[in-house]
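User: Can you help me understand a structure? I only have the sequence.
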Amino acid sequence: MAQSLRQAFEAVFEQALEHSYPGAPQIDDEVRPVDLRTVRDVCSAALEATDRRIPQVATADRRVMSRIANPLGIGVQSEQAFKLDVSTRWDLHFTRKLTERRESGVDGHVTVGELRKWIDEPEPMGLSRELGNLVLLVWAAATDRVFTEHGGPARTGLDSLGDHYEVVEQELPDAASWSRAIDHAERAFGVPGLASEPSAVALVRGTTAPAGSSSRIPSLLTETPSL
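Assistant: Let's start by predicting it. Here is the structure, written out as tokens:
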């Protein structure tokens, strides 16, 4: 009897949620902070992997990725591999909203608050703030965008993404300039393991690295080709 009452209550609760948040992703079970960190870390690793694909995700992380990343639309976790992909769900949606914003005459960079509202269009998703932050952090990194506050780099995290932050698209160097810069950084400063292709993630890493190491990368990009 108790089990029947519980099942009935859960069914009514699920129906109420579906009515309030028709766009809610089908994420089973509780999403813990450690789960969010796992998804963030795997997505970050995928950003620097060939074709943004990790051939074999750690066994302990695969279920977390499949039940969170997949329904959120930030990538696809298969039996073993994870492929980061925000194009179908988020980049298409946000690009459309950014175009509408520009055509309506709104100036300036888009803010996190605006993007957060767009997450719930065309249908409310009912994401927690942390899940919303995860979506925005992954989308921004995957599309070469960075977060700024008062014109400078913003401190970001799963639990710290201010609505007033601006999201700025980065102008990336061409492949030849990037190759020269990382080659010089490796030879002159002994900085190994730099990304072979330019990206906002690599530029931010170079900018925030300890002085005298890859912090030189941005300035190296403007120096002469003879370096």
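Now, to help you interpret it: The beta strands are 53-54, 75-77, 82-84, 110-111, 145-149, 152-153, 166-169. Residues 2-20 form the longest helix (19 residues). Let me know which part you'd like to focus on.
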